[in-house]
Sequence to fold (502 residues):
Amino acid sequence: MKSTKSDIILKVPSKLLYLGVPDAVMMEMAGDLPFPVSDMEMLSTAVIEACTNSMEHGNGMNEDNFVEMHFSFLEDLVRVTVLDNGPGFDHESWVPPDDLMAQRGRGVKIMREFTDELIYDFADDGRFRLTLIKKMKPE
Amino acid sequence: MKSTKSDIILKVPSKLLYLGVPDAVMMEMAGDLPFPVSDMEMLSTAVIEACTNSMEHGNGMNEDNFVEMHFSFLEDLVRVTVLDNGPGFDHESWVPPDDLMAQRGRGVKIMREFTDELIYDFADDGRFRLTLIKKMKPE
Amino acid sequence: MNIKERKRDGIVILELSGKLMGGPDAASFDETLKTLLHEGSFNVIVDIGNISWINSTGLGILISGYSTVRKSGGEMKLLNVSDRIQSIFMVSKLHTVFKSYSDEEDAVKSFA
Amino acid sequence: MNIKERKRDGIVILELSGKLMGGPDAASFDETLKTLLHEGSFNVIVDIGNISWINSTGLGILISGYSTVRKSGGEMKLLNVSDRIQSIFMVSKLHTVFKSYSDEEDAVKSFA
Ligand SMILES: Nc1ncnc2c1ncn2[C@@H]1O[C@H](COP(=O)(O)OP(=O)(O)O)[C@@H](O)[C@H]1O
Ligand SMILES: Nc1ncnc2c1ncn2[C@@H]1O[C@H](COP(=O)(O)OP(=O)(O)O)[C@@H](O)[C@H]1O
Fold:
């Protein structure tokens, strides 16, 4: 993976109303990039989960706290990082509920299934950062 | 006009490929806000012109120079500011070409017609800043 | 998310549109179903063909609705599940729970 | 922007899709028209129904194409101009230049 500057940077307040914006950005780019739309949709679905969690668990739905996203469209993969102001969490140790009918607890599972790599760390300024990577086969 | 924090902040490299992104953001928000879609389309068309100019005349199509946009969705208006790293220009003194068949020179005219207010100044960090405001009648 | 309600051959069809993502969506879907059950409509088709995307919280809303209808002895089935949403059902194994149809008539007939 | 080419009753119909915004779009539209003129097709319908938006540089491309076709004694007309694009034509007064149609058959017949 080449390390490049992010192509697109997006910041939205922690409000569910804005969850459609990263999806609109990803789907707009999907129309112009030579990647399968279904792969872009899966990644975007994972990004929506990451944003939902950052708004809710990271920023406590406080609209003054922004969720920041960086989108990098590389030759054979798309990488999205999602930053929030919360304490962070270790997604690797998260065990989703067994109950098929559970109402919550599916976000991390969806992120795992729809990406190739899921990395968490903290940015230099202390914000929690989740990186979602999906490999893309140019069509 | 209330002065509020911007709702959405977007940064894209100076590359025509990315011109669709601010439009996708505006149109996504148009779907959820109680404003006439045609008004949002007109403002978005004006924003595309501002971005095209920022990429071309402001940033010299240098992909390392970003165009930054701030979107504020207020009760009765939408305000978008567009920042670039160029010398700026005084749009008020711009006289569009008379020739109906001229190939260029229509951007500023479109911005004037499709917004209620067009303000230029420089941000604290010296970047050129164009502010586009369109009044909205909630439906 | 918006909900439009109509009837066909005695079966209620709820047409959802927009994004299904929790928050206020949960209450409005829940109330719509409870009103229907109260009025004696136990068989419900939820048309999600105009839902652009759904997140895991939105999945929870569908699950909760499904359980509510079931508890009253009714059934809730889905109509027009897009490929994008179907892939979310698959990874959550919810395709084993929700019966879904791509044709409205088939969905209506399935209650007969 | 993408261009698809087809013929109907001897008239060439160019179906544009995507965004019309200058850059590489200018050259590809120009080349397409020049090839057509070279082959003896002077009457062209440009279907922009699948163009999501156009900027002023994109307008310049249409204007340049219009002039090119005109100079060869042909005519270029537009099909399926969306309300969004029509409003841009209005403020640029280009609706007085471009003949546009909402029905393909009408557009084709107009060349008769
Ligand atoms: N950005 C985050 N910051 C802090 N905690 C998080 C974050 N994202 C997820 N979590 C934790 O991981 C858990 C599992 O997340 P998820 O699978 O999305 O389910 P849900 O959000 O429905 O609980 C959450 O309940 C929360 O405790
Ligand atoms: N962001 C900007 N920075 C510097 N100059 C600009 C900027 N935007 C517009 N201009 C100047 O204003 C002129 C008119 O712009 P416009 O009406 O959009 O026409 P065009 O871009 O086709 O020349 C441009 O040619 C340029 O000289």
The radius of gyration of chain A is 15 Å. Chain A has one domain: 8-135. The interface with chain D takes residues 31-32 of chain A (CB under 8 Å).
